Amino acid sequence: AQKITQTQPGMFVQEKEAVTLDCTYDTSDPSYGLFWYKQPSSGEMIFLIYQGSYDQQNATEGRYSLNFQKARKSANLVISASQLGDSAMYFCAMRELNTGGFKTIFGAGTRLFVKA
Amino acid sequence: EPEVTQTPSHQVTQMGQEVILRCVPISNHLYFYWYRQILGQKVEFLVSFYNNEISEKSEIFDDQFSVERPDGSNFTLKIRSTKLEDSAMYFCASSDPGTPGEETQYFGPGTRLLVL
């Protein structure tokens, strides 16, 4: 079974508008961390935002926020005021802190295109 | 801001040759990782390393692969006899999970390996 599901292979957004990238996850471990990474065309993996399973509030980092709905097992990334430089591949990822060892598990990614 | 560095950025090799990919993790991190990403596919966990030994490895990490921390700063991945299917982007990552909330693994810029 897929641990991380990103159902949107590609998304378009107009510059300066907000966009939501979907992510659902599957785990029975009560303690886990959720992450979003950005991968521009140059290939590096840039950490964007982290949400712990016990965090009461949604994580925010500048223009990035994570819409964490624990009961639905979703961890959508919201990018506000999109910029052309936001065009990239975005990966949702998870670490299962009790049962998952040390590895981070990645979704298949969503490619975001920001239009001028 | 501290970052993970990797060398070389690109490596082309002949099938059957040995390659060594090098990484310098963030200096106060204690856990180190290698991941790979075949072109157009998910990022996959290979191995984690802590306290001078492998703490976890995936089924991909077979006898052709080895890791080493030869000194206090470098972390290397060796592929003994490369195969065509080893062509991928290889990411090194490091983390300091001893700090609450700091579960994040920070990735280097990657080494793009092409096996001919």
* Mean pLDDT across every amino acid position of chain B: 91
Strand content range of chain A: over 45%
Number of strands of chain A: 12
Low-confidence stretches of chain B: none
Low-confidence stretches of chain A: none
Distance from N terminus to C terminus of chain B (CA atoms, Å) equals: 37 Å
What is shown here, in short?
The complex is a heterodimer of chains A (116) and B (116). Chain A has 116 residues and is an all-beta fold. Chain A is built from no helices and 12 strands.
Characterise this structure.
- The complex is a heterodimer of chains A (116) and B (116).
- In chain A, 0% of the residues lie in helices and 50% in strands.
- Chain A is globular, with a radius of gyration of 14 Å.
- Chain A has strands spanning 4-5, 10-14, 19-21, 24-25, 32-39, 46-52, 60-61, 64-69, 74-79, 88-96, 105-106, 110-115.
- In chain A, the strands form three sheets. In chain A, strands 2, 5, 6, 10, 11 and 12 form a six-stranded mixed β-sheet that branches. In chain A, strands 3-9-8-7 form a four-stranded antiparallel β-sheet, with no helix packed on it.
- Chain A is mostly beta strands.
- The model of chain A has no long low-confidence stretch (mean pLDDT 94).
- Chain B has 116 residues and is mainly β.
- Chain B has no helices and eleven strands.
- In chain B, strands 2, 4, 5, 6, 9, 10 and 11 form a seven-stranded mixed β-sheet that branches.
- Chain B is globular and about 40 Å long.
- At the A-B interface, strand 5, strand 6, strand 10 and strand 11 of A face strand 4, strand 5, strand 9 and strand 10 of B.
